Amino acid sequence: MRKNAQAYCLNKAIRLTTPSDETYTNLYQGLADCYNLAQKPKEQIQALLEQYKYDKNNHQLLFTIGRIDQDALEDMSRAKKYLEMFMATRPEKQTKEEDPEGTISASLYNVAERRLDAIRKELFFREGVPSKMIINNKEYKAVN
User: What is the CATH topology of the domain spanning 2-141?
Assistant: First the structure.
């Protein structure tokens, strides 16, 4: 019986000293908010990426990272990457007007689509024709 009590106490101590994923999520969300207020977008993105490690279902974080990359850092390649990752989370049955899952607003996906269109146009004029493009989760290759 004594061994079971010791194991119980040690397991309880581990639970009490190891923060839950929810705690990490809240801490990194607060850190990202602090960096946002301090106007430190690179640090804000790092905090959001850490938050996403513990909150993998919060796909809106991908949109936020892409938006910060696009607006604050003007890193269009990274913005495109994260906005495409966000768009890949759109439920297949979701139309542009409704969100059957009730999770992420359909309008946020529409905003992401418009941002991606703007980024693709800007990258096209900066870099020329890409060898491949992904539009609505379909890959298209350039014809030479």
Answer: 1.25.40
